[in-house]
Design goal:
By secondary structure, the protein is of the alpha/beta class. It has a single domain (4-208), classed as Alpha-Beta Barrel (TIM Barrel), CATH 3.20.20. 28% of the residues lie in helices and 21% in strands. α4 links the parallel β6 and β7 (163-167). The chain starts with a strand and ends with a helix.
Length: 210
């Protein structure tokens, strides 16, 4: 499992392609943030704009949207390996997870900072991966919420065999702490892209958690 996964959040399809080109041959995984302007205030590129990216990357799709069930077929069509829906975006999370079961991608649930781990206990047996958000979702560059560390520990204790990731605000300052708390991987956006040499920043984070 790759321990650091670069994230791309953009409304600009050309920026998406440029960042994919930067990562080509450097990262096996990439997370693509999909936003609808309703569940979160911002919007993003559409899933279809990923085109044939699945031929070069394992695609993780983070759906920050209402009605995530409407996006599942598109996630399948672009060859997603893992898809996250938000616990807060679905009235009936169990029903969404049941719909996801017919697709080959891993079923993931993302939880916002205000959502407790107990919020997904009832559906845990139908979840392949949990994404703990370290920031309020919708934009990159927000500061990491310190209480996320304890939340990760709680998640690891509750779900010892589940794949657990953290997303948002991860940097050189806290990357060792989140892994010490029990995550399998960290998703990093601004911690990579706000550097003059994004690949050097990515590789440094990887080295720190080997």
């Amino acid at each position: 499992m790759q321990k650091i996964i670069p994230a791309i959040l953009t409304l600009d399809s050309s920026a998406l392609q440029k960042r994919l080109a930067v990562l080509r041959g450097k990262s096996k995984w990439v997370q693509i943030d999909i936003m609808d302007g309703t569940f979160v205030p911002n919007t993003s590129v559409g899933i279809s704009e990923l085109g044939e990216a699945f031929e070069e990357f394992n695609l993780e799709i983070h759906l920050m949207v209402l009605h995530p069930e409407r996006y599942l077929e598109d996630c399948f069509s672009i060859g997603a390996k893992r898809v996250y829906v938000h616990a807060e975006s679905a009235k009936e999370l169990a029903e969404i997870l049941l719909l996801m079961k017919k697709y080959p991608f891993d079923r993931g649930v993302a939880i916002n900072p205000e959502t407790p781990i107990s919020g997904i206990l009832k559906v845990a047996n139908d979840v392949d991966a949990l994404l703990v958000l370290g920031v309020v979702p919708g934009a990159q560059g927000h500061a990491f919420i310190p209480s996320t560390i304890q939340k990760i520990r709680e998640a690891r204790n509750a779900f010892p065999d589940m794949t657990i990731g953290v997303d948002g605000g991860v940097s050189e300052a806290n990357v060792r702490d989140v892994f010490g708390a029990g995550v399998d991987y960290a998703v990093v956006g601004s911690g990579i892209w706000e550097n003059e040499d994004p690949i050097a920043a990515f590789k440094k984070l990887e080295e720190m958690v080997k």
